[in-house]
Amino acid sequence: MLGWSFLKLINSSNFFIDKLLSFVIFSAFLGQAFSYSKVYLFHIVVLFVFLILLLRKELDVFLKFDFKKHLIFCYLLIWSFASAVLSPDKTLALKGLFYILCGVGILLAWNLIQDKSFIYKGLFYLYLANLVLGLLEAFTPIRWPISCASPWLELFKKENFGDYPLTYQDYPTGFFWHPNNASLIVLLGYPIILNSKKIKSTFKILITSLGLIFIAKAGAKAILILSAIYLSYYILTKNILFRLKSAKSYLMLALILSLFITVFYSFNNEQRNEFLTSLEVVTNYGKSIITLVTRGHADGVRGEVSERIRFMIGAVDLIRENLFFGIGINQNANLLVDVLGTPTSLKSIHNYWIELLLTGGLILFVPVFSWLLFKLMVLMRRMETRALGETLGLFILGVVAMSSAAYFLPQWILYAIISDSENARDFL
To answer: What pLDDT is recorded for position 414?
Structure first.
C-alpha cells in the first residue's frame, strides 16, 4: 500500500510537482530555522523533490534549464570544483562546495517552476511571519527555539554561544538565527512591498513602521541607517504621502512617531546606547576601512566596530598574499591569524565581499561582483523591475552587516529572481 501510494505520488500531475518545487524555495528561505544539528529541512526537501523528478524519468526538465541566464553560476560551479581539488584542507573545501551545490539546487528549482505566483505569495507570508515572530521575541518571553539567543540549542544539537541567550534576550532573531540576519531580511522586503500595486498604502506604512521597530530592537545599526536612507529615497522619489488624504498622512506620521517613542523608552540601556550612537559607529567604521585600505591601523575605534576592523585587517593581509587566486573555497573557516598582537579567527570576517575576495581572489570576486552591478543597472532601468533593483542594491550594501553570508540561503532566492527578472512583474 505504501509503495503504491509513493508511485502514485511520483506519477501525479505537473501541478503537484510545481508545488513541491515551491517548497524547495520556502524551505531555503527558512534555512536554519527548521533544522537539527547540521541537517536542515531544506536538505531533506530538495533531495526528496529531485528524487521524485528522477524516478518520474523527467530528466528532460534539467535540459530546460536556461544556461545563458545563469552563466555566472556555471562559472562559480566550475571554480568551486577546481578550488576544492586544489585547496589544502579538503574537508573544509567539500563543505564549501556543498554550500554552492545547495545554491545551485535553489536555482534549478526556481527555473523549473512554471507558475511562480504561488511562491511570491508564500514568500510574502513567510516574511510577515518572520516580522511578527521577531516583534514577539522583542516584547514578550517568546523565543524561536533555533536562534543564537535560544536557551534550547542543545536539544537541537546546535553550538551554544555562551552568554548569547542573556545578551540577546530582548533582541528579535525571527527565523534567521541572528538579529542582523533577520534585520537584513526585513530591509530587503521594503522595495517589493512599498512598490506593490496590490497592497494598500495603510498596510504598507504599517509593515514599514513595524519593520523599523524590529530593526531598531535588533540593534542592527548599519541596517537601520540603510532603512532610513532607503525610506527617504522612496518618499522623495515616489511622493507616497501625497497620494494619501492629508488627514490620513498626518495620522500615519503621528502613529509612526508614537511607535518610535514607545519603542525607544522600552529599550534597555545597551540598546538605547546603540541606537543613539549609530551614526558615530558607522562614521568610525567608514574611517577605519579607509585607514585599513591605505595600510594603516584602526586606532581609536572601540567595541564591536573595532572587532570587525580586526577581522578585516587579518583578511586584507592574506588577500595581499593571495590576490589573484585567493586561499581557496571555505579555507577561512579554521584560520587563526595574529592581528595587532591579538589571535583572530577569520571564520566570520563580518564583511561578505572581503570574504569572497579572500577565498576566491580576483578570479572569483571580479566576475561575481561585476555581474551583480550589471544586473543592478539593468533592473534599475525598467520601471517594472526597479523594485528588484532596489532590493539587490540594499543586499549588496546590507550583507556586510552579517558575520558571514556563505550559507545564507535566501541570497540564492534573490539571485534566482534577478536572473529571471523579465518574467518577474508584480510579486504580490
So the answer is: 95
SS3 readout for the chain: CHHHHHHHHHCCCHHHHHHHHHHHHHHHHHHHHCEECCEEHHHHHHHHHHHHHHHCCCCHHHHCCCCCCCHHHHHHHHHHHHHHHHCCCHHHHHHHHHHHHHHHHHHHHHHHCCCCHHHHHHHHHHHHHHHHHHHHHHHCCCCCCCCCCCCCHHHHCCCCCCCHHHHCCCCCCCCCCCHHHHHHHHHHHHHHHHCCCCCCHHHHHHHHHHHHHHHHHHCCHHHHHHHHHHHHHHHHHHCHHHHCCHHHHHHHHHHHHHHHHHHHHHCCHHHHHHHHCHHHHHHHHHHHHHHHHCCCCCCCCCHHHHHHHHHHHHHHHHHHHCCCCCCCCCCCCCCEEEECCEEEECCCCCCHHHHHHHHHHHHHHHHHHHHHHHHHHHHHHCHHHHHHHHHHHHHHHHHHHCCCCCCCCHHHHHHHHHHCHHHCCCCC
Question: pLDDT digits over 131-144, tens only?
Answer: 999 999 999 989 99
pTM for the model: 0.85
> What would the mean pLDDT of 293-305 be, rounded to a whole number?
48
163-215 pLDDT per residue, tens: 565 667 788 999 998 999 999 999 999 999 988 888 888 898 889 889 988 99
